[in-house]
Amino acid sequence: MANYDVIVIGSGPGGYVCAIRCAQLGLKTAVVEGRDTLGGTCLNVGCIPSKALLHASHMLHEAEHNFAAMGLKGKAPSVDWKQMQSYKSDTIETNTKGIEFLFKKNKIDWLKGWGSIPAAGQVKVGDEVHSSKNIIIASGSVPSALPGIEVDQKIVVDSTGALELPKIPKKLVVIGAGVIGLELGSVYARLGAEVEVVEFLDVITPGMDAEVQRTFQKLLTKQGISFTLGAAVQGVEVKGNKAKVTYKSRKDDSETTIDADTVLVATGRKPFTDGLGLEALGVEMSDRGQIKTNANYATNVAGIYAIGDAIEGPMLAHKAEDEGMAVAEGLAGQHPHVNYNVIPGVIYTHPEVASVGETEESLKEQGRSYKAGKFSFMGNGRAKANFAADGFVKILADAQTDRILGAHIIGPMAGDLLHEICVAMEFGAAAEDLARTCHAHPTYSEAVREAALACGDGAIHA
Ligand code: FAD
Ligand code: NAI
């Protein structure tokens, strides 16, 4: 039993960042984590392992498709799946151990076990009850089930199972053309699986800029991934070590059944708050199972706060981190602010897809007049040299003020390129501010500048 200023429940990107910030600001802090390792979904079964597999499989793709053209001849590498898995596990371990190190460095106690809140100001872990002035729930999210489909993590898997398949399937059917489906679908397609994605809507990656959606689908199709859109999955039947996926066309109600060795269900995630005791405490929840909070991340129960995937907003690691820092700074008497208009979203396929702010569609809906400056990576020397000239940068700026309202990039290192636009947006910059900033040559970043130039008098290399 100990007394704390802050107990954080959950050590994902929301929880661990929050705890570090609390400790830095002089608050006596503990984190409750039920997993064997720190880092939450992101480090253990999300961002980090998926990026390791995306990296390894991209390297294979480069070797198979581009090495010979660059004069790098010889036997193409073959896949040692066991070794790739241990590379992935090592990557997870160095990251989760890194958080453990940061906890020690910042004198944060790790209370090992699953926590519950018997009353405001108390957190129970195992048989011990700890007291704390403030409790921050950062309990994250889990895959949401699809009615009638049982995930057995062998033949029918969710993202966690898909990260550790015993072997590369011959035929992988992915249900859902969202971020998880396309990232993990890409991994297995590059490793030799036949990948078919079945999506309920008529577009992939719903909510994204429509031109990016179309280009993205075209490029993934070129890489061998096939798409069935407008298809409502009815069920998955497992027989032996095979599965049959049945879907109904939303256009004409016709039913189709496809065979698969593995089925990845990637139809979204839902907040995880089981076992915390929130109902008994009277913590208000939304009908989507999210913990309701105010602008300071406070719930309706005094002294209890919530952040990250467990509350509303995009389920992204960096959104959770920003909220973690903000709630800590608020508790220390500061006046933090998270700008929800400038939260980047990145899909780490190849090419990458990155977006921030408004889309053309959302601006049209608002009736707001805007200009779109677009530049193709075909006009970027570095991208051409690196066989990475597919895609474009699009910057959306207010028609009158030239203020940047959004940006959408599909192309090499899109996730990294986006950030200069995010910074510009934070500063309320105009497209001309980016256009007048000298960009080093030859870099992919020049494509961002060219898109900004295209919002004005025109790009140079278009
Ligand atoms: P989580 O990371 O979910 O952490 C919550 C932690 O709380 C867990 O460790 C859980 O064990 C613990 N916990 C819960 N309840 C209790 C309790 N009662 N007691 C003790 N411990 C508890 N986002 C990105 O931004 N970029 C990406 O590239 C990306 N890739 C992803 C890939 C995959 C395959 C998946 C599944 C997700 C990915 N995400 C990505 C999403 C990202 O992982 C989440 O948005 C992020 O982890 C949310 O952080 P969080 O701190 O809110 O919760
Ligand atoms: P998602 O919400 O991105 O995509 C789910 C897709 O499944 C949607 O396109 C939806 O229309 C479709 N769908 C839903 N029901 C269906 C049905 N019955 N049949 C066919 N299709 C159906 O969810 P996903 O991919 O599971 O990811 C969950 C969360 O994890 C996302 O919110 C994302 O933010 C986060 N994540 C982020 C990553 C990143 O930032 N790079 C990577 C992976 C996950």
From TrEMBL:
<protein>
    <recommendedName>
        <fullName>Dihydrolipoyl dehydrogenase</fullName>
        <ecNumber>1.8.1.4</ecNumber>
    </recommendedName>
</protein>
<feature type="domain" description="Pyridine nucleotide-disulphide oxidoreductase dimerisation">
    <location>
        <begin position="343"/>
        <end position="452"/>
    </location>
</feature>
<dbReference type="GO" id="GO:0005737">
    <property type="term" value="C:cytoplasm"/>
</dbReference>
<dbReference type="InterPro" id="IPR036188">
    <property type="entry name" value="FAD/NAD-bd_sf"/>
</dbReference>
<dbReference type="Pfam" id="PF07992">
    <property type="entry name" value="Pyr_redox_2"/>
</dbReference>
<feature type="binding site">
    <location>
        <position position="51"/>
    </location>
    <ligand>
        <name>FAD</name>
    </ligand>
</feature>
<dbReference type="InterPro" id="IPR004099">
    <property type="entry name" value="Pyr_nucl-diS_OxRdtase_dimer"/>
</dbReference>
<keyword id="KW-0274">FAD</keyword>
<keyword id="KW-0520">NAD</keyword>
<dbReference type="InterPro" id="IPR016156">
    <property type="entry name" value="FAD/NAD-linked_Rdtase_dimer_sf"/>
</dbReference>
<dbReference type="InterPro" id="IPR006258">
    <property type="entry name" value="Lipoamide_DH"/>
</dbReference>
<keyword id="KW-0676">Redox-active center</keyword>
<dbReference type="InterPro" id="IPR012999">
    <property type="entry name" value="Pyr_OxRdtase_I_AS"/>
</dbReference>
<feature type="active site" description="Proton acceptor">
    <location>
        <position position="441"/>
    </location>
</feature>
<dbReference type="InterPro" id="IPR050151">
    <property type="entry name" value="Class-I_Pyr_Nuc-Dis_Oxidored"/>
</dbReference>
<keyword id="KW-0547">Nucleotide-binding</keyword>
<dbReference type="GO" id="GO:0006103">
    <property type="term" value="P:2-oxoglutarate metabolic process"/>
</dbReference>
<dbReference type="InterPro" id="IPR001100">
    <property type="entry name" value="Pyr_nuc-diS_OxRdtase"/>
</dbReference>
<keyword id="KW-0560">Oxidoreductase</keyword>
<feature type="disulfide bond" description="Redox-active">
    <location>
        <begin position="42"/>
        <end position="47"/>
    </location>
</feature>
<feature type="binding site">
    <location>
        <position position="268"/>
    </location>
    <ligand>
        <name>NAD(+)</name>
    </ligand>
</feature>
<dbReference type="InterPro" id="IPR023753">
    <property type="entry name" value="FAD/NAD-binding_dom"/>
</dbReference>
<dbReference type="Pfam" id="PF02852">
    <property type="entry name" value="Pyr_redox_dim"/>
</dbReference>
<keyword id="KW-0285">Flavoprotein</keyword>
<feature type="binding site">
    <location>
        <position position="199"/>
    </location>
    <ligand>
        <name>NAD(+)</name>
    </ligand>
</feature>
<dbReference type="GO" id="GO:0004148">
    <property type="term" value="F:dihydrolipoyl dehydrogenase (NADH) activity"/>
</dbReference>
<feature type="domain" description="FAD/NAD(P)-binding">
    <location>
        <begin position="4"/>
        <end position="324"/>
    </location>
</feature>
<feature type="binding site">
    <location>
        <begin position="176"/>
        <end position="183"/>
    </location>
    <ligand>
        <name>NAD(+)</name>
    </ligand>
</feature>
<feature type="binding site">
    <location>
        <position position="309"/>
    </location>
    <ligand>
        <name>FAD</name>
    </ligand>
</feature>
<keyword id="KW-1015">Disulfide bond</keyword>
<feature type="binding site">
    <location>
        <position position="115"/>
    </location>
    <ligand>
        <name>FAD</name>
    </ligand>
</feature>
<comment type="similarity">
    <text>Belongs to the class-I pyridine nucleotide-disulfide oxidoreductase family.</text>
</comment>
<dbReference type="GO" id="GO:0050660">
    <property type="term" value="F:flavin adenine dinucleotide binding"/>
</dbReference>
<feature type="binding site">
    <location>
        <begin position="315"/>
        <end position="318"/>
    </location>
    <ligand>
        <name>FAD</name>
    </ligand>
</feature>
